[in-house]
Every structure is written in C-alpha cells, then in structure tokens.
Structure to design on (155 residues):
C-alpha cells in the first residue's frame, strides 16, 4: 500500500528566484509498495517544493498541489536516493523510478489536492521538464550546502 505516514511539517526560510524555499521540520515517511520499503526524507531538508512554471495555466492546474509528494520527489532529485526509514540504508534510484513514485504518491495522498488527471499532468511535467534538474549538484549545493559537503549525493 502506498501511503504517507506523516504530515508535512515545513517552515518557509527564504525566497529565491521568485519562489518560496522551505525546510522540513520533521522527517517525512512514505511507504512505497513498488519498493516494498518505508522511504524517509529527514528533517532540515531544504526544498522549493513543486517547481511549477509560472505560466498561468500550469500554475492554475498544479500550483500548491502535492506538497508531500514534492518533498519526496525533490529529495531524490537532489541526492539520487531516499533513506530507508527502518535500516537507515540509502535506496539509490534513477529518474524514471523517482518520477513514477511521484505520480503514485500524488494519487495515494488524500490531501494532495491532485485528482488522478492532475496527478498525470504533474507526472508528465516532471518527466519532460525535470531533465535539467535531475542530479543537478549545483542546485543541491545551493539549497542544501551542508548536506552536499557531507556527501549526501548518491555514489
């Protein structure tokens, strides 16, 4: 069963490039049926959530939706892995797997605000638009400099 085990606890800490920047205040756990594991994004992770283009139609469709899914997705996009909540191991993933989990988590999350149709549109947005963001170490260093210096990236 795909299910978030925690509510998102966030605090806005900055404003960059016309977008709010957020920090998680507590770990966010998600059970992935596809992986058969509980994924975790740790507290103090810095994210810009869903980087929805500010075109009026795109923002109207997807803006502000899927906060928990966006945290989960953004962590793996920055570092190339998720944490295993039970063992503490890294679960190294590739972009297609992360994008698929994003879609699945949007649909599974009753408070995401994304219907299956909107979730599908958001999925295609990350599949096509996320190519430049995947494993972008400069972006990870900008948002999470202490983490990248400590070797949080995969590999």
């Amino acid at each position: 069963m795909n299910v978030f085990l925690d509510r998102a606890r966030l605090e806005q800490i900055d404003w960059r490039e016309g977008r709010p920047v957020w920090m998680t205040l507590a770990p966010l756990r998600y059970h992935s049926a596809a992986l058969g594991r509980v994924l975790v994004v740790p507290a103090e992770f810095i994210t810009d959530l869903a980087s929805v283009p500010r075109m009026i139609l795109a923002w109207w469709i997807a803006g502000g939706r899927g906060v928990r899914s966006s945290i989960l997705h953004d962590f793996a996009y920055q570092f190339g892995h998720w944490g295993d909540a039970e063992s503490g191991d890294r679960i190294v993933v590739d972009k297609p797997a992360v994008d698929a989990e994003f879609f699945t988590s949007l649909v599974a999350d009753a408070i995401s605000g994304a219907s299956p149709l909107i979730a599908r549109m958001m999925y295609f947005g990350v599949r096509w638009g996320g190519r430049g963001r995947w494993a972008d170490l400069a972006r990870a260093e900008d948002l999470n400099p202490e983490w990248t210096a400590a070797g949080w990236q995969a590999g």
